[in-house]
Amino acid sequence: MKILVCISNVPDTTTKISFTNNDTTFNSAGVQFVINPFDEWYALVRALELKETLGGSVTIIHVGTSDSEPTIRKGLALGADDAVRIDTEPSDAFAVAEQIAAYSKDKGFDLIMAGKETISYNSAMMGCMLAELLNLPFVSMATKLEVAGTNATIEHDIDGGTEVLECPLPLVLSANKGMAEARIPNMRGIMAARTKPLQVLPAVAADKLTSISSFTLIPGRTECKFIDPSTPEKLIELLHNEAKAI
User: Fold this and answer.
1) Would you call 46 helix, strand, or coil by DSSP?
2) pTM of the model
3) Domains, the chain, ranges and CATH?
């Protein structure tokens, strides 16, 4: 089985976020970057489990510049066989999808996986765009995946329950929590990652459909007001006059 896993390079969740250039540019100075958790913990680990069970190979692909290679090497340390980096700044979801589609369209992958979204932008768009560009079926936010022969059985959450789908391969899938359990690379894997193939390819012409006008930090926590149970009318007054819709 031949699997492609798309990974993103994102700031560690403990990073203190700031912006420069009049709040139009993310300030990456001193920031520790990691593999996007949804890509690593669920998509990549489940792909590795399938390889261990069914045989085949797992390739990871990343659209980004050379400073993202340490996170790519972590993916190799976890057990991926090889990696591809498309050498361009990931400008928006559609441009990233076009780069990955251009690479993968003639490679014969049985399954293309990614996390349901990145923790940096939370757009959850790239996977469905990639499927459309490749003219392949797409299942979003999958929590379980089993493969038998040329068919996949997939579960994902819907309002009020869980939906079970059967889909022929090849397909594109975005993975959600529950797909797999996170792994930690061992020393053998870390050493092996140093010599595993990492192919760097030039970018193709791609359309950028979005632009950033500015970033805004989430407001900090405000003071919590406590209302005496004997004065519910005070709560009603605050809800009408001070509470803000979320």
Assistant:
1) helix
2) 0.86
3) 2-217 (3.40.50.620)
